[in-house]
Amino acid sequence: MQQTGIVGQIDQICYVVDDIDAAVGLWASRWGAGPFFLMKGVAFPEWTWLGQPQDLSVDLAIGQLGDVQIEFIRPHSDLPSVYSHAMTGGAVLHHYGVLVDDLAAALARMDNLPELVTAKSGAGTAFAYVDGREDFGVILEMITRGEDVVGIFDMVRQAAMDWDGTDPLRPLSLD
After folding, report:
1. pLDDT at 1 over 50
2. Which CATH fold topology does 12-162 show?
3. What pTM was estimated for this model as a whole?
4. What is the pLDDT of residue 175?
């Protein structure tokens, strides 16, 4: 993925949904997106929301539509979190994800947009959510281009290339 613009290109579009199966079915049938890979009970180490540690887990599914990854997230809790504003039932556009080489530099280029979340993947790759709703209508996720993240993005993209439309939702374990 080649970086363009001041920060980069949009690599991922994420929706908060109340039903991942329904969202996958809709996107697979209407857009041809998929296959999607489901991860249940994902919790991120060192997750902070508004600077405070938060114990949060989600189910998420990722699939591909052309050059863009589509992600569906279903939080396990309705406690206040970065997802609260989007937990209205159905599916709500939540964030654009951008892969970046240098997270600190990317955040600095965000014109001081409020930082909502800082976290690390299970393998230790740092990412952050910034509040871009006023400027872009959505939150922005800056994701360090770590080996684990690139590996998953590549796996999903490759699966989409050979996909025949069957089995649109598949389990994925990160163990």
Report:
1. no
2. 2,3-Dihydroxybiphenyl 1,2-Dioxygenase; domain 1 (3.10.180)
3. 0.94
4. 64
